[in-house]
Amino acid sequence: MEKKSAQGITIRKEENISDWYEQVCLKSELVEFSQVKGTMVIRPRGYAIWQAIQDYFNEKINKPLEVKNAYFPIFIPESFFKKEAEHAEGFSPEVAWIDKELTKDGERLALRPTSETIMYDSYSRWIRSYRDLPLKINQWCNIIRWETNATKLFLRSREFLWQEGHCVYETEKECEEDTLKVIRYYQKLTEELLAMPVLIGKKSEKEKFAGAKHTYTIEAFMPDGKALQCGTSHNLGQGFAKAFGISFLGRDEKKTLPWQNSWGISTRLIGGTVMLHSDDKGLVLPPEVAQEKIVIIPLLFKDSKETVLKKAKEIYKTLSKFNPILDASEEYSPGWKYSNWELKGIPLRIEIGPRDLEKKQVIIVKRNNGEKIVIKIDKLKQEIPRILEQIQNEMFEKAKSLLDSKIKLVKSWKEFEKAIKERNIAKVNWCENTECEISIKEKIGASTRCIPLEKEKVEGTCPHCGKPAKTIMYFSKSY
Amino acid sequence: MEKKSAQGITIRKEENISDWYEQVCLKSELVEFSQVKGTMVIRPRGYAIWQAIQDYFNEKINKPLEVKNAYFPIFIPESFFKKEAEHAEGFSPEVAWIDKELTKDGERLALRPTSETIMYDSYSRWIRSYRDLPLKINQWCNIIRWETNATKLFLRSREFLWQEGHCVYETEKECEEDTLKVIRYYQKLTEELLAMPVLIGKKSEKEKFAGAKHTYTIEAFMPDGKALQCGTSHNLGQGFAKAFGISFLGRDEKKTLPWQNSWGISTRLIGGTVMLHSDDKGLVLPPEVAQEKIVIIPLLFKDSKETVLKKAKEIYKTLSKFNPILDASEEYSPGWKYSNWELKGIPLRIEIGPRDLEKKQVIIVKRNNGEKIVIKIDKLKQEIPRILEQIQNEMFEKAKSLLDSKIKLVKSWKEFEKAIKERNIAKVNWCENTECEISIKEKIGASTRCIPLEKEKVEGTCPHCGKPAKTIMYFSKSY
């Protein structure tokens, strides 16, 4: 019996989450390191998750929000960056440029680290009157940021895939409403599709997007107590409009500055999903994003092989809409196959042997918790959707309990330090000063994650600097 | 009444097809030139066509051909190119490189002009045994080719979007079968979706893909008599496998070289569709790829405004699955609106006024030929799909007649010269010599397009060099 490369995960999640995570990503064949430092190859199993995210999100934005997809060039002239000072400064360390010899006018061309500048240059030509507003455009594309920190598959790489929405509005009110709508769509996406609960809130002044008025964020929490920023929606105010000369003739016939927002999610979401749910056997995927939701494994013995295989094929056909795998190879033992498909993260396994056949039943095993269920074959078609839904819910509930248990309301600096040291999220009555924020980061490695969207009562003083508290803020370590 | 920018096309198609084409692309808001020389912004109306192409083609390859989508890095190390000599040479003039400072190991990084090399590097690690074959992967991505010729919207630009499929097979037979299947899928796509008939065939030795064994192509013909290569499918033989160290343990337990193909279509297809079908009023789009298939224009007069508008809204709802536009603005005259939506290429216009309302009817105008049809309102839902299908067929038939009329079987050099001069496609009994091919190109500007897939009888001698004819070959000018 050939061994192949399907050997399992050799590092425990609790032991070394970072190395464990890398093994899960690689061995489940979601992704691999490319030969070019800092980049990755998203393999079919990984890309299928991205496609599921794309389909879900296009559905949300295209009709209900009336956003249209488009495509802008990857090349951005250096001068465009310089038009919005904060923005230019925010991105300058990680911009990659193409060979200078290529631009004869002496201007360097960047590979997009984000597309505000090149899109708003076009917008300045497209928008003339209030009748042209709102303008709502989104693009799915590759993004280049020349990170110098170590590459982490899906989480930090020099090229990644994302969507970026860029909208322009007549009024501040519409702009803010949509900015909030989108961050709530993102929350729905991570929670419904990826079974990944998040905190939703506003970034601090220091952590907001370069050039924005304010930034909303969704933050997932990984089992190692680090936050993972999963999506952001920026109210850009009128700063970019001013810098890029976007204006419109208002209803009052006066030249007016519009309001803008931008918002994005990336292939980083795949990494969060993998790290949150997977275990020491390998990948655990929420059924909603698993392309192949079921693996059928017939137990083949000499005498009964034909009848068992025949029934397995029937089941395969019956369940075709779940895109099942039928693993009927005879080179590997059933045990080897179980491990292999657990490693790959197939949500449901169906085992069928001669004894099951006699009883007109199969055994179903849930990937998320190993639970076994015996089901009559003629009930499969109606029971499978229910069980997949159950898995999805169980995965979300488990993750939600983890998140809830990690949030620690801290009153004193001692409690604050302890909460972070023990890899929790500190919920703090905070002073909102940037110097205080920087100092906290230096001392205990925790950064501000977000101010909760739902208003909460603020009381007392900042546990770090002692000044009066102005807001609730979540602090934690982060990716 | 405001004039806006919706003024019509000012150049006639027959007069100057190149300038006319650019006006149609720009004024119908499919695309615009970006501020970065050689690149374009694909606007929502243009991108919607690309999405329709993506949906159609994914449907064809994912299930029936079992191809899976993935994503490989845009960066390719210089050394990868050098592994396959012909391939490296073929692409070297148009490769763009990123700033040298970024690559500390002294190796330059190219922006992908095509992805054979970086994909096959991964394949060499993924493929071990015949059980890993066939491996069938496709990616949708951006491509960079630093063209120095003038930019032509959709047809020639330094960045464009495409799909590239890259498959690996155990046997030559499977490989060749799929290579042909794909070129036939491409033909179906251009003909069924884009109403654009093509010639299908094999490229000459000189025109085949750099590094391929042979290349199949589909070639559309534009009204100016120039061919537009619309899609290619390459049988790569075993050359890349050898160069990139891809091998597998065969059924006979021996190390074996696999067979490979690659195939692609790009946003160039949008340009072909626009140039082929559009007219002096602007864009004409096949209903199958038009996102908004209908525009409803109510004729609003003081007394009857409310009832007409109410009915127009009812019709809008009834026809919602055709993604209609209801243009009920009162700033513009109906005539202005007709021109505007003709310019934008909406396949069907529905006019409804008070007199129509009395007769419980509407007037329908077909964009492709201006034909007017009176239809009872209660028949709309059942008649519209039929009329849209009719438009699609009429557009294909018209284009097919054009193509057929352009093919001239030439026997002598004089006939050959004349056919090309009069902007036709010369069908030639040809010697198949590369020197002859080069000489013909130099003399009359015609290049080899393809050898028809369906075998035809070859007779006589080459009308250019007089050597015995070996094959039928189509020659023409080209984009």
Layout: helices, strands, pairs:
Two copies of one chain form a homodimer.
Chain A: H1 17-27, E1 31-33, E2 40-42, H2 44-62, E3 68-69, E4 75-77, H3 78-82, H4 85-91, E5 96-97, E6 109-111, H5 116-126, E7 135-144, E8 159-169, H6 172-193, E9 199-202, E10 214-221, E11 226-237, H7 239-244, E12 248-249, E13 255-256, E14 259-266, H8 268-277, E15 294-298, H9 305-318, E16 325-326, H10 334-343, E17 348-352, H11 354-358, E18 361-366, E19 372-376, H12 380-406, E20 407-410, H13 413-421, E21 425-430, H14 434-444, E22 447-452, E23 471-478
Parallel strand pairs in A: 3-7, 11-23, 15-16, 15-17, 20-21
Antiparallel strand pairs in A: 1-2, 4-6, 5-6, 7-8, 8-14, 9-10, 9-22, 10-11, 11-14, 12-13, 17-18, 18-19, 21-23, 22-23
Helix pairs in contact in A: 2-6
State the helical fraction of chain A.
Answer: 25-40%
Low-confidence stretches of chain A: 1-6
Number of domains of chain A: 3
Biggest contact = A-B, 52 and 52 residues
CATH architecture of the largest domain in chain A: 2-Layer Sandwich
- Rg on CA atoms of chain A, Å: 25 Å
Oligomer classification: homodimer
Q: Order of strands side by side in the largest beta sheet of chain A?
A: 9-10-11-23-22
Shape descriptor of chain A reads globular
- Alpha-beta content class of chain A: alpha+beta
Number of helices of chain A: 14
Mean pLDDT of chain A: 95
Share of residues in strands of chain A? 25-35%
CATH superfamily annotation of the largest domain in chain A: Bira Bifunctional Protein, Domain 2
What is the C-level CATH assignment of the largest domain in chain A?
Alpha Beta
Number of extended strands of chain A: 23
Main sheet properties of chain A: 5 strands, mixed, barrel
Task: Indicate the CATH topology of the largest domain in chain A.
Answer: BirA Bifunctional Protein, domain 2
Termini gap of chain A: 42 Å
